[in-house]
Fold Biogenesis of lysosome-related organelles complex 1 subunit 5.
Amino acid sequence: DVGEIYSRLLDHRPAIQGEIRYFVKEFEEKRGLRELRVLENLKSTIFETTEHVLPKCEQGMCDSLSEVLSRVQAANDMIHRLQEREHEERKV
C-alpha cells in the first residue's frame, strides 16, 4: 500500500520515459528529413555537374588542347627547319 502510494506520488520514471521516447522519436524523424534533404541536394549537385559542368569543361579543354597542339606542331616545324639549315651549313 505504501509502495503504491510512493510510486504514484514520487516515482516519475514512467512519465519521464514516455517523454524521452517522444523526444527521441521526434528527433529521429526531423533528423531523417534533414538528412534526406541533404542527400537530395547532393544528388541535384551531382546531376548538374555531370550534365552541364563536365561537358563544358571537356569542351573547353579540347579547344585549348587543340590550340596548344597546333602551336607545338608549328614550333616543332620551325625547329626542324632550323636543324636542316644548320645541317646544310655544316656541309658547306
Q: What stands out?
A: The chain has one domain: 2-91. The longest helix spans residues 13-91. The chain has two helices and no strands. The helical segments are 2-10, 13-91.
